[in-house]
Amino acid sequence: MKRRSLPVMVSLCAASALALTGCGQAGQGGGSGDGPIELTMWTHSAGNPAELEVYEKIITEFNASQDEYKVVEESFPQGAYNDAITAAAAADDLPCLLDMDGPIMPNWAWAGYLQPLDLPTSITDELLPTAVGTYEGEIYSAGYWDAALSIFARKSVLDANGIRIPTVDEPWTIDEFDAALATLQSAGYATPLDIGAEDAGEWWSYAYSPMLQSAGGDEIDRDTMLTADGALNGPEAVDFFTWFQEAFEKGWASNAGTIGNQEFVDDKVALSYTGVWNALASIEAVGDDLLILPPPDFGTGPKIGGGSWQWGISSNCSEEQTEGARQYLEFSFQDEYIAEFADKQVVIPATAGAEALTEHFSEDGALRPFVELSQQFALARPETPAYPVISSTFEKAAKDIMNGADVKSTLDGAVKEIDANIESNDGYGF
Amino acid sequence: MLDNSTPATEISALPATKPPKATARAQRGSGRRNSLARRREFRAGLAMSTPAILLLTFFLVIPVLLAFGLSFTNARLISPNPPRLVGFDNFFRAFEDPVFLQSLWNTFAFALVIVPVQSGLGLLLAVLVNQRIRGVFLFRVIYFIPVVTSIVVVSILWKLMYSEDGLINSFINTVTFGAWNGIDWLGEQSTAMPAIIVLSIWQAVGFHMVIWLSGLQTIPGELYEAARVDGASTWRQFTNVTWPGLRPTMIFVLITITIDALRLFVQVDVMTQGGPRDATTTLVYHAVRAGYRQQEVGYGATISLIFFVLVLIIALVQRRLTREKD
């Protein structure tokens, strides 16, 4: 017995491990036969209870509304979500329904993760243009909301310093903005603007590429989508990044501090470049004194990034599951749900019908200015499969420039990196 | 196990063998016993090494071979296009890539500081906590705590401490009576890498202290007694008894610290993301950034392969320099 025990134990372990994985596999198939067809659904919303609550409500009501399909939801923390999708795709194990950040959609569609959404146009036509993800003429994703960036300020502070309050029709020019920052700095704000540079990741492209576009540059030449040359390193881009570098040199902005809007709430900064999601807390703290202002015009009019989290159907979805997934999405795009997302998450609802139902974004809602900003200035990030590389290269270049690197040569390096990547991917199909 | 010297019990353990009768048979039996024992040993050896061999094959050998293959292709993490052979393109690209060259430099600069300082400090601590005084156990624990703390947690805490209004700046500010205006340790090109070096030494020195300590405790006490009888000073005892006795430990510490130092990644990933202006980017960090975040698996594999070869060369050189002369 003693002699045999080790091999026996090893084989027992192996056998039980196999059995366990077998069970795991079997559990995933599920739903065949007489029960309802199971639709797996992944969200990035773990850690965001407000958002998750609405999803759970929609799922419960959808599952109760019919007995052919059953949606099973699984949520991931946002930081690990894209990795989970990539790993699942590599293992051919994607969920049927999945949400994704707007700008990454072309990459996933190109890679074959997604299938065209094929929702009735009566739904997609109603949505904000930036809440619909289109790639090569096909709609692959649609979302319940969009976000918007703006500049928060206190009316009392601007008035006291004789600074003009900008409007959507007449935003600050860059010279006015510079003058305002200089004034506020001499008025005692050591760092007058919280530009959010302490954050990392997609924020950089989301927040600062619209400024670059406002100056007349871009992250890539959108006509061909084949090169960044001339867009990311042209004279307009150099001008903008020189401004960006100087803003840090002069102490107008800083990369220290905490992520979020606390510095503005505490009145340590006079202006805060931040998103709609921080607005409610600021209203609570500042009250009527709060101004929600358009970002400055760097030359070709203000721009803000568009495209937030949206839903798609994966290519791993079987035909009957796809049918169910469409039914679920159609069911979920009700104004009532969209309004609930908007109020709970503090994001801009994607339909006019939902706007009217919301507390914050209706005609006289406190956050109404964001709707206007989004309608007037929202610009999607480049809709190309190269976007993840563009975004990460943009972030690195902008950070290097913030830290004092030579503007022109850094941008040239970034262009070279992006172009090399596009080339090694045979142009990403463009 | 039963006593091996009694053949009867040994053989009776094998059901197929008939009971022995005479000396001749006993001899044959012992021959068979030897081969049986050998076979059993072989089987036991196989059973014991199988888990390690399997794990090493799956998680080391196969990935290394894959990396070797991938580094000659333009493979992508996400792509509908099949990877294509591109020859040595990735290698040429690496040596023209300024971030790669900077990473190479940073990695070796880091190791060049870490290896002597951390091993020296580890030895010093080991000698200190090797004293027979009350409460010495407490110090051993204190020095060892950072080792068993997750490096991610340590990095996050030190990031806070290094910030412009963090603990370190306010401490220096207090002891200099306000003459010190905080600097952003991780935000300045000149201080970011030294800051990471200090934190890394603090975190890992306890581990090497324990290794040195185990080495110290293998040195027989008689040698020290003899040295004292000969009138050797404490310093002479160290150079002539302790240090020669620590030679095998020294080789182990040197090689593990070198390999650990060259692998620098987590601190950079958590604290600086390679910045400011590539001041803290390392080979492993650059490989992850290129291969995973920019999805160029082929290029990432090339960087890893270059890294692998460099580490191998260094380890071999160290091994050769420290080998036993006799």
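Residues 23-70 of chain B form the longest helix (48 residues).
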